[in-house]
Amino acid sequence: MTGPAPTWTIVAGRDLDRVVLVDVTSDGTELSRRTAGRDELPGLVRAVESRADGAHRWVWNDTSRWYPALLNAGVDVARCHDLRLCHAILATSALVSDAADLRDAVVWSAPAGDDEADDALFLLDERAGVPDDPAEVRGEFVRQQAAVHASDDPDRLRLLLAAESAGALIAAELHAAGLPWDAEVHDRLLTQALGTRPSGGGLPSLVQARADEVRSALGDAQASLDSQPKLLRSLHRAGVPARSTSRWELAEYDHPVVAPLLAYKKLMRLLSANGWAWLAEWAPDGRFRPVYVPGGVVTGRWASSGGGALQLPRQLRPAVRADPGWVLVVADVAQLEPRVLAAMSRDIALADAARGTDLYEGIVAGGVVSTRQEAKIAVLGAMYGATTGDSGRLVPALRRAYPRAMALVDDAARVGEDGGIVSTWLGRSSPPPSAAWQAVQARASDAEASSGDDTAARRAARDRGRFTRNFVVQGTAAEWALAWLADLRSRLAALPAVDDGHPAATASGPLFSRRAHLAFFLHDEIIVHAPAAQAEEVAAAVRMSAERAAMLLFGGFPLDFPLDLRIAADAAKA
DNA sequence: CGGAGCGGCGCG
DNA sequence: AAAGCGCGCCGCTCCG
Q1: Cβ of A335 < 7 Å from strand B?
Q2: Cα A307 from Cα A273, distance rounded (Å)
Q3: How far apart are CA A197 and CA A191, in angstroms?
Q4: With a 7 Å cutoff on the CB, does A564 touch strand B?
Q5: Which nucleotide is nearest to A393 (CA to C1')?
Q6: Of A91, A119, A245, A280, whose CB neighbour count within 10 A is largest?
Q7: Which long-range contacts does A130-133 make (Cβ < 8 Å, 24+ apart)?
Q8: Cα(A41)–Cα(A18) distance, integer angstroms
């Protein structure tokens, strides 16, 4: 790595309403210190950022506790080190040979704080989060830097920690900026699908109509459709011997109740998950602002909390609409996980299959399986550990064609079955087996173990093997996506602001109404909201960042990560 | 009354 | 079409 030497400033001391800023060296040695009122912080940060040369990092206990207020004040930062998230990685990483100090610091394993809740009633509740005392914060920083330095691969870990911390910044910015949401389009989609919105307590007209058809087909005007046990009994009375009321099982029965019931369930799902109540609660001002939770999934994927950001139904994507004069740049990576697997395992044959734009067609072209659908099922089965059905049947063909890639996931599964730890490409490690899991294994190896004990142990082992098999791929894909996001973020920040902010400027706060900004992220997909005049520039940045992410993680390994990218007024899927 | 658990289904 | 990974949220039911 070249460029200016990194500099660091610890920000701490929140509870005292006095902020302490400590400039430190990369090993935590204090250089200088000052204190300021909380209201002064944005100005101080802005001053440092404006003269920073790109290598300055803010070190704080928890990005979600500090950054939202800065964003509200119109200040963003280029880089940070999020101690809470980095602690979670380092305390369990197999690359860290001696993590005893970190593991002892259990207070750093607290869940994230919530800046907005702080101002309410929760200051002293148990969700107080990780420490913010300046000495504690600096101590943790010192521990983390030492752990990285002494680790088996400091470069990989530094990359992972930088990506994770950038993700924390991005998550806060995504929330602040929001996803532009057109309530009129949403309302129209709902009305088309569900019928007229009821004024009182009843169901929308088309939902009610389906419910009437279901009850008529069941021959029971009082049938309860929303209680699974009651519905199941009604179905039995009507001659449908279903064991569950799930969609795929119901679809197998040839009975007049099936079609309207499936339709009813689909409509009710839309109504309850993303209906008018959702619209009023989650997108009241032309922006959908989910709470993203970086590192919320053990594999390193993000989770979300509130609004169901990660479950937006395709059906509603037309409601994601750019402001007038702006566009959306929507991009996702085609088959990210198998590509990541090819790169991790240095499987040239699989990389060759991935050469064009469609990895699955590449597998067909290589004569491994005969159709694209088979290729897809086989690949998913390989990564998820399928053993039965079409998927399990196709995996052996994959094992012959791509032995290196398959060996990587098969090894990960074996390690998991044996109770071991697996790690992603950059060094995020799987959690150890739970106490319950170990107890099940121990019981089976007891001299007086029953065959039931043995079966249970074997099943638990295989379950864990499927988890670790998938962990290495899903987790490395998450790392690739973080690197993509982080690089894109800095490219977007370098674009000029536009003169006239979009009309909904107030909706996206002071920072994002005049600048191209990330607006959505979902595992392998991003949406950028950009001034129309910058659309092509943004699209180029999105592509360059993907290339950069591949280079950062996998160096010169010859593998494409092609994007499906479109520039449009809305985010409807093709 | 509230919380945990479950079936079900949306997303990758 | 649902075997195989990871999530969050809904409504209902059960239980303390």
Answers
A1: no
A2: 9
A3: 7
A4: no
A5: C3
A6: A91
A7: A130/A61, A130/A62, A130/A83, A130/A84, A130/A87, A131/A61, A131/A107, A132/A12, A132/A13, A132/A14, A132/A15, A132/A61, A132/A65, A133/A12, A133/A13, A133/A15
A8: 10
Neighbouring-strand partners of residue A420: none
Find out whether A441 and A461 touch, Cβ atoms under 8 Å.
yes
Q: Which nucleotide has the shortest C1'-to-CA distance from A312?
A: B11
The number of residues in chain A equals: 574
**The token pair that represents A437 in the structure block:** 């899991």
Q: Could you identify the residue whose CA is nearest to the C1' atom of nucleotide C12?
A: A227
Beta bridge partners of A82: A60
* Residue closest to B8 C1′ by Cα: A246
Cβ–Cβ < 8 Å for A411, A405? no
Q: Tell me, rounded to whole angstroms, the distance of Cα A146 from its chain centroid.
A: 29
Cβ-proximal residues to A292 (8 Å cutoff; 6+ apart), any chain: A171, A174, A175, A302, A303, A304, A309, A521
Render each residue's pLDDT in chain A as its tens digit; 574 residues: 456 778 999 999 977 689 999 999 999 999 999 999 999 999 999 999 998 777 899 999 999 999 999 999 999 999 999 999 999 999 999 999 999 999 999 999 988 887 655 444 444 444 568 999 999 999 999 999 999 999 999 999 999 999 999 999 999 999 999 999 999 999 999 999 999 998 888 999 999 999 999 999 999 999 999 999 999 999 999 999 999 999 999 999 999 999 999 999 999 999 999 999 999 999 999 999 999 999 999 999 999 998 899 999 999 999 999 999 999 999 999 999 999 999 999 999 999 999 988 999 999 999 999 999 999 999 999 999 999 988 999 999 999 999 999 999 999 999 999 999 999 999 999 999 999 999 999 999 998 989 889 999 999 999 999 999 999 999 999 999 999 999 999 999 999 999 866 665 556 778 999 999 999 999 999 999 999 999 999 999 999 999 999 999 999 899 999 999 999 999 998 7
